[in-house]
Amino acid sequence: MLRANAHHGTIPRFKRNLLLRDFQPSAGCSAATMGRAALDFMVFGEAYFQRLRNVIGQVLELRHLPAINMRCKVGGGFVMLLPHGKELHFDADEVEHVKEYDVEQDIYGVPDYLGGMHALLLNESATLFRRRYYNNGAHAGYVFYTNDPDLSEEDEKRLKHQIAGSKGVGNFRSLFVNIPGGSDKAIQIIPVGDIATKDEFERVKNITRNDVIAAWRMNPALAGVMPENAAGFGDIEKIDRVYTNNEIRPIQQLFLQINSRLPKGRAVGWTNGKAQAR
Fold it and tell me: Is CB count within 10 Å lower at the N or C end of the chain?
């Protein structure tokens, strides 16, 4: 569902970018490898690395394994699901599993944003409804009401033909009607679409957007939300610094656990003053 909502799709990549901003690549873990694993961690709450060893068993490099295809085996170890029903099996010491702790189970990591899924789906439904509303011409719908006896049958047929042809690309065409001797209300245009639907749409979009951002624990200033007042969201550098300290650096600590099995010069680290690469 990453593509169901603009914020839900971009926030995990933004958090991945923050994690990579101070990352120090090494011979054991490249920036590309950490970038893929970090995105997996943001989306799935877990990431997998394969330990590539030399002939004497030393770990030389970490290779990213896509979390969406990885499963934990009942008897220990891991398996990767491949196309056409094939499987690739790994021993327990071949894979490094970085995961968020879940209070209900300790097998897989679980992301924190799951509580915002209903808001995400409501946001998507509101957008799809509005698209269909415009595509079928409902936003330009009206009742063309006439009650003048001076309107001939031929004129009625012409009006019906013009109205029927106003759908689709030309639904904003104008009509000219002249009824000699007709009353001031001989023809009335009565809109069908409720003007309140626009406000309702905005309320749904704004409320669900805020819920999605809250589920990701993302500051609106960093999520691309336009401020609704002149004051804005405050000092963006302070917001970035506080968010990085409270959200990104704890994630770095989770990834640093893989260094216990990597030799010197091949460990991962960040240049934030607290976690340096060896």
Answer: N
